[in-house]
């Protein structure tokens, strides 16, 4: 992952966006279809940088974009992130 990327999802009424670390390959795949996914409100699986998959209901997303991986804070799907809770 040369330019670490993040899928940033904003939900209505939620002040903090959801952040998912994604690979360059996933960013390229999503780049061409992200607007259509949000417009159509479809559900799609997204591959995270650590190899895990998340399923996103784009019908609940207000805005979405791909940005740089933040240096501070918690990002789902980042390599090396330890699982907590029920596993």
From TrEMBL:
Domain of life: Bacteria
Protein name (database record): Uncharacterized protein
Protein source organism: Allokutzneria albata (Kibdelosporangium albatum)
């Amino acid at each position: 992952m040369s330019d670490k990327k993040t899928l940033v999802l904003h939900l209505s009424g939620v002040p903090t966006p959801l952040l998912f670390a994604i690979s360059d390959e996933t960013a390229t795949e999503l780049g061409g279809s992200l607007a259509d996914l949000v417009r159509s409100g479809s559900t799609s699986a997204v591959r995270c940088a650590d190899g895990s998959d998340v399923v996103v209901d784009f019908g609940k997303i207000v805005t979405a974009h791909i940005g740089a991986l933040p240096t501070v804070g918690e990002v789902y799907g980042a390599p090396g992130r330890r699982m907590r809770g029920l596993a």
